[in-house]
Design brief:
The complex is a heterodimer. By secondary structure, chain A is an all-beta fold. Chain A has no helices and eleven strands. In chain A, strands 2, 4, 5, 6, 9, 10 and 11 form a seven-stranded mixed sheet that branches. In chain A, a hairpin with a 3-residue loop joins strand 4 and strand 5. Chain A is globular and about 40 Å long. Chain B is globular. In chain B, strand 7 and strand 8 form a beta hairpin. By secondary structure, chain B is mostly beta strands. In chain B, strands 2, 4, 5, 9, 10 and 11 form a six-stranded mixed sheet that branches. Chain B has a five-stranded antiparallel sheet with strand order 1-3-8-7-6, with no helix packed on it. The chains are: A mainly beta, B mainly beta. At the A-B interface, strand 4, strand 5 and strand 10 of A face strand 4, strand 5, strand 9 and strand 10 of B.
Chain lengths: 112, 109
């Protein structure tokens, strides 16, 4: 069973502060993704990566940065957190020739 | 605009009833995948179904590419089927998936 671990599981941040969400996978997957989920919007793609040291913008990248320092790790960085970034964030991974996405348990972020 | 649309947005079933969930997409696609989100939030993959029909237990997925739609049929619903069902479309480039807004299902006794 593929394993994707997110940390922290929940976080409260202050407006204007810096937030880093971490994701670690032990499946040797090439692709890693960051999605956010808001009520009424399903999951929306923020950033993704298909190889270490490279990241790509998804559909809603504004206000977010991503970092893929190794194949196993993928971070999402909010340099200046805003109220509108309150959401649940999911990390996922997928192998190059596989079709199934494996999700982490999610991080609930509240920006106050 | 929204490229993946799901219907209905919510559904209440009596235990034992069947349900048909729909997913429509507005662009050409490479594949379609269905996910189940548990009430507590975790996500699991149900089907990868680029075309045709696939069945797993009481669940059946049918994707018709020419008609740009996919459906998920749940037969003999159980209380434990409650949760949100999400479809995700992968475009031709095959690098990432776009999700629909989900169907929230509640099965009651």
């Amino acid at each position: 069973e593929a394993a994707v671990t997110q940390s922290p599981r929940s976080k409260v941040a202050v407006t204007g502060g810096k937030v880093t969400l971490s994701c670690h996978q032990t499946n040797n997957h090439d692709y890693m993704y960051w999605y956010r989920q808001d009520t009424g919007h399903g999951l929306r793609l923020i950033h993704y990566s298909y190889v270490a040291d490279s990241t790509e913008k998804g559909d809603i990248p504004d206000g977010y940065k991503a970092s893929r320092p190794s194949q196993e790790n993928f971070s999402l960085i909010l340099e200046l957190a805003s109220l509108s970034q309150t959401a649940v964030y999911f990390c996922a991974s997928r192998g190059l020739s596989q079709n199934t996405l494996y999700f982490g348990a999610g991080t609930r972020l509240s920006v106050l | 605009g929204q490229q993946v649309q799901q219907s209905p947005a919510s559904l209440v079933l009596q235990e034992g009833e069947n349900a048909e969930l729909q997913c429509n997409f507005s662009t050409s696609l490479n594949s379609m995948q269905w996910f189940y989100q548990r009430p507590e939030g975790s996500l699991v993959s149900l089907f990868y179904n680029p075309s045709g029909t696939k069945q797993s237990g009481r669940l059946t997925s049918t994707t018709v590419i020419k008609e740009r739609r996919s459906s998920l049929h749940i037969s003999s619903s159980q209380i434990t089927d409650s949760g949100t069902y999400l479809c995700a479309m992968e475009r031709n480039s095959g690098t990432y998936q776009r999700f629909g807004t989900g169907t929230k299902l509640q099965v009651v006794p």
